[in-house]
Every structure is written in structure tokens, then in C-alpha cells.
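Field notebook, page 281. I keep forgetting to write these up properly, so this time I am using the form the group agreed on. The chain and the ligand, 2,6-di-O-phosphono-beta-D-fructofuranose, are recorded exactly as supplied. Prediction of the bound pose follows.
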Amino acid sequence: MNLILEAIQKSAIRIKKAIDVKDIGYSQEQNSSGETQLQLDIQSDLIIEEELSRVVGIHTIASEEKEHPMVLNESGHYCIAFDPLDGSSLVDVNLSVGSIFGVYEGEFSPSKMVASCYVVYGPRVELVFADKENVSLYLLQNGEFEFVKYLSLNKRGGIMAPGGTQQFWAPYHKAMIDSFFTRGYRLRYSGGMVPDLHQILLKGGGLFSYPGASDKPEGKLRMLFEVFPFAFIFERAGGKAVDGLKRVLEKEPRHVHDTSPCFFGSTDEVNEVVSVYTAAQ
Ligand code: FDP
């Protein structure tokens, strides 16, 4: 596992350099979800593929930028799913973006998840790594990631990050979000999943939501590349991650690019989501 963390750290340092120097422009290619890719997406994908290919213990990798998983080493043990540059549409406006990784033993099933990690490329580069024991924060300083502290969530927070287009929200979802704001929650939504969830995690709690809505019944965020890794981290930090009714880590994607509605946060807020969604069934 140490070799995997080191490979992720090396990738992050190279991606940060690419973000700093890259000419920002849209490439002609589209990813498998039909979005226009930034060249930085492609470059970040290649960097991570190259670094992970050097770790002999890795059997298969799956990237959000590729249609199918890729076998690296038949005798390897780990499977890694990653989103090389999440929120890449924010690069040109100079907001924070990130890379997300989920580590599995044997197959891409949440029951086989053993670690998870994300990197935030902001004014500083930070990395959060969770294994079965801890959620650890690292800071990139002088070319190396240094351990800062362990992270944990409070039972209740004060931040609300409501994703999706309000016009398409279910009435009970809108009423629930409104009710949080009425009780003093503060809006914090940049449109980048990594920095938005990082803020909730570091400031002790709150709620990030990307619901199923009439325009996107299964939400937007991909289970393997975005939802499972953050669910693993939030649960290890003492919080919760659900699809409205049940733990997202109890869901099995049928296809590597399947999406799911998702809610991440501290216990009280997520419990409230589940009672509102259960009552609405
Ligand atoms: P992006 O499309 O910029 O890559 O991964 C998808 C994502 O960003 C998340 O980072 C972000 O939370 C979400 O989409 C934002 O979606 P909306 O624009 O629908 O709010």
C-alpha cells in the first residue's frame, strides 16, 4: 500500500506542475460520458497511468477518462479506480481541482475497498489518504508530502454544498435544503467536488449533496471514480455517505461509469437526509 501512496504522490506532484504551466485550451476529444475533455484531463490521466504502472502489486486500473479498465499486471493484487482531474472545467477560472483514487483488493466492489485518497490542487497542494484505521492529511512542501494530522468529522456541521440544478430538484429535496439554510447553514459550493468535500471535512462537518433529479435521475457523480472514494473517507472520518436511502458503499455498479445520487456529511445531517427521503417514498 505504501508503494501505491508513493505513486499517487508522484502523480500529484507532476499534475500540479502540468496545471501550473499548461496552456488552457479545450481538446477535440470527448470522454465516455460525452463531456469535452480538457487537455489537462488527458495529461493527468497519462501521468497517473504511468506512475501506477510502476507498482507491480496493481492488477487493474480504471480511469474516468477511459471507457474500459486496463489490466497492468496479471499477478497483481490491487485494483485502482481514479478520476485524474475532477472539476477540470474550473481550471480556466483558477478554482481548485483534484484527483480522486479508490483502492480495492481483487475487484471493483465497495466491499473490497481497502483505501481511498484524493489530492486538492489549490493555493496549496493537500492530500487526504484513508485506510481502514485513519484519515490522514498531508501537505506538499518542498517537493514532499508531509503528514499534518488525522481528520475526523463532528456529529453536526454548519456548511451546505447543494449540487445539481435546483429547477430539476424534487420538491422534498428543495424543502430539505431550504430548511437547512433556514437553520443557519452557510452555502459553500464551488462546483468542484474535491474542494467542496475537502472544506466540509476540514471544517468539521456539514452536507454535500448531488441528488437524483428530473434531469438526472441517477445523479451525476460516478460511483467508482467519485462517490465510493469519498464515501470511504467520510465514513472513516466518523461521518456518513448515502444515496438518500442507503449507504452508497452497499451499492454495486453494473458498469464502471455508473452514477449514483449521493450525500456526504456528518452524522446528523445525513440522518436527516435519510428520514426525509424515506418519508418521501
Ligand atoms: P466537473 O463536471 O467540473 O468535472 O465530476 C463532476 C463535477 O465537476 C464535480 O467535481 C462537481 O461537484 C460537479 O461535477 C458539479 O456539477 P454541477 O455543475 O452540476 O453542479
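OBSERVATIONS:
- The longest strand covers residues 78-86.
- The longest helix spans residues 2-21.
FOLLOW-UP: compare against the apo run.
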